[in-house]
Amino acid sequence: MDARALWDRYRAWLYDAPALGFRLDVSRIDMPEDQDRRMAADFARAFEAMSALERGAIANPDEGRMVGHYWLRAPDLAPDPAIGAAIRGTLDRILAFAADVHRGAVRPKSAERFTDLLTIGIGGSALGPQLASDALGSERDRLRFHALDNTDPDGMDRLFAGLGGRLATTLALVISKSGGTPETRNGMLETAAAYARLGLSMGPHAVAVTQEGSALDRHARQAGFLERFPMWDFIGGRTSELSAVGLLPAALQGIDVRAMLDGAARMDVLTRVPEVRRNPAALLALAWHVAGGGRGARDMVILPYKDRLLLFSRYLQQLVMESLGKERDTAGRVVHQGIAVYGNKGSTDQHAYVQQLREGVPNFFVTFVEVARDRQGPSLEVEPGVTSGDYLAGLMLGTRRALHEAGRGSITITVPDVGPATLGMLIALYERAVGLYAGLVGINAYHQPGVEAGKKAAASVLALQGKVIAALRGRGGVGGSCAEIAAELAASDDEETVFKILERLAANPERGIARVAGTGPFDARYRFAG
Questions:
Q1: What digits encode the pLDDT tens for the residues 340-361?
Q2: Which of 130, 261, 369, 527 has CA 20 to 30 A from 244's CA?
Q3: Domain ranges for the chain
Q4: Annotated catalytic residue: which of 48, 359, 381, 455?
Q5: What is the DSSP letter of 351?
């Protein structure tokens, strides 16, 4: 395609919202000029499904619940006035609590102010707050942000060692809808033990974000947590950043959360338009559908050319992959849908995997995120008339051109800056695009049966571990091999899991299991050493 034809195509497919400083270009996805018209009936169904969602339709039949993350920035749209009042009231409470923490009205007993903030959560209860903190934080933050988002003991030790004595002036936010998520529960217990090592109780240093009446809610009451904020059943984890899950840590850090909500609300207005070329989320969904043949045949590579958006791809991994990665469609047919997401940042990736993107397997499409504003204040000229930001922009445009010349598709999103309103816009854009794409391919974006299956499988392994330890105790000094223990437990069909359990326990001698014989993985014997 020559330069003139490419320019004409760009103009035909460009979505421009000058009031927001936002542009979306899907012209470098190879699709017919009338692709939107060819899919008009599919989009009509997707638009109606989205409208029904916002009106309060049951969108998650597995749990019999509505899905209302759009109401978070437009409470008047909630189908029940009580829901709208709860959303507005919670925002007011978040802002009031953050202000009390900042001025020292809410403070640790041993100091005048909290200095640090530790979020304890996983999945949507971790990725959104981390994205907001990394994208919008600065050295002027009211509280320094830290996150505990796994059940890795060594990772927790590193975090607590880094905090050191500042843990005494750290405010801990425990975020879990049910309070039963193992990773979050373990993190809370480990954090409580870390406070205890300083002679402190966790309660006066902690806040819970959870569903009313949950196990965490009950624990927070009993332990004397400073405050409790709600997680509602109509908000899923991966769409929770603009609820108390994300707004509370952001407000405590000093981020303008009203601007985040305003940016999301303004994008929501644009993405409600039931016309593909006048709706940026619909254009994104169309591009994804064409690029992947409606089956996720190509991966989504997210390349933001801004350090502050480093975590954007990690955030989108959960939002996109947990929403769209489904075995069955809404009619119950096996379809194995999904779009794989990965990415880091430009121009770092030009020295990593862009080589493969340019010349390797064409199993992807790229989304470039271009930020117009280089920095706050003037820039140094690293060459006459050229700044570091000019280089960054040139590298992005050059990579985009090189990929196009090699027949590799790309999308380009342009935003004015990385501020609270812009981040809100991006979150809202992708939330709506995911919902519309799900409508196009006929899947439910709002449940996650695969995640639940993984949790159940993990619970069964832990149950088997308890039986393995008990069996070795019963054998005394004689001990046994993994085959003998598996046979004793009637678990011979799962001998590999018994082996993996014994090997890990033996690698941690404080657990009381010792490897006493054998040189290889299959002739090893173990005993309970006490």
A1: 999 999 998 888 888 899 999 9
A2: 369
A3: 3-54+272-446, 69-258, 450-528
A4: 455
A5: G
Q: pLDDT (tens digit, 9 = 90+) per residue, 259-290? A: 999 999 999 999 999 999 999 999 999 999 99
Which of 126, 155, 135, 331 is CA-nearest to residue 241? 126
Look up residue 183 and give its amino acid: E
Beta bridge partners of 148: 120
489: which residues sit within 8 A by CB, 6+ positions away? 464, 467, 468, 471, 498
pLDDT of 272 reads: 98
Candidates 109, 112, 139, 351; catalytic one: 351
Q: Record the tokens describing residue 298, joined without a space.
A: 């190509």
Query: CA 449 from chain center: how many Å?
Result: 17
498-529: burial string, b at 16+ Cβ within 10 Å, e else: bbebbeebbeeeeeebbbeeeeeeeebbbbbe
- Cα gap 240→259, rounded to integer Å: 16
In this prediction, residue 110 carries a pLDDT of: 87
Q: Do domains 3-54+272-446 and 69-258 have the same CATH topology?
A: yes
pLDDT of residue 520 exceeding 90, the answer is: no
Query: pTM, whole model, 2 decimals?
Result: 0.94
Kindly report, residue by residue over 434-453, the tens digit of the pLDDT: 999 999 999 999 987 766 67
For domain 69-258, give the fold: Rossmann fold (3.40.50)
Task: Return the pLDDT at 277.
Answer: 98
Is 510 assigned a catalytic role? no
Q: Which CATH class is domain 3-54+272-446?
A: alpha beta
Round to whole Å and give the CA distance between 30 and 25. Answer: 12
Cis amide prior to 347 (ω within 30 degrees): yes
- Beta strands 386-387 and 410-415 are unpaired
Name the active-site residue from 54, 322, 431, 495. 322
Q: State the Cα–Cα distance between residues 437 and 491, nearest whole angstrom.
A: 43
Q: What is the pLDDT of residue 437?
A: 98
379 Cβ contact partners less than 8 Å away, ≥ 6 residues apart: 387, 388, 389
Architecture of the domain spanning 450-528: Orthogonal Bundle (1.10)
Residue 61 is predicted with a pLDDT of: 78
Q: How far apart are CA 62 and CA 231, in angstroms?
A: 18
Residue indicated by tokens 């507005």: 88
**Model confidence pLDDT, tens digit, residues 153-206:** 999 999 999 999 999 999 999 999 988 899 999 999 999 999 999 999 999 999
- Name the phi and psi angles at 312, rounded to 5: -60, -40
Joined tokens for residue 8: 């004409």
**CB–CB of 260/250 below 8 Å?**
yes
Q: In what order do the strands lie in the sheet with 513-517?
A: 480-481, 525-528, 513-517
